Amino acid sequence: xxxxxxxxxxxxxxxxxxxxxxxxxxxxxxxxxxxxxxxxxxxxxxxxxxxxxxxxxxxxxxxxxxxxxxxxxxxxxxxxxxxxxxxxxxxxxxxxxxxxxxxxxxxx
Length: 108
Hints:
Layout lengths: L2 H16 L16 H10 L4 H8 L10 H7 L12 H11 L12
């Protein structure tokens, strides 16, 4: 990766960090990610639906992928759509490095 590419990548990660969906639940600033935001972050970090399912402990199948992750990325209002649980989203963001984790963070 060139220096320019790395700087672009770093700026994009900073953009992800500033989004309301990357804030902690208890901050009062958190908003649930949209299906498009979930897919955008997952694809930016080159993570498949199956890999995401493995990371967050969701159901997956080697041949069929993950219907669970697919439902999180389905269009809102469709029969297939389900909101991603905060804990799964936060774990994924920690795993890909968008946010960190410190023991006791936001527990007061």
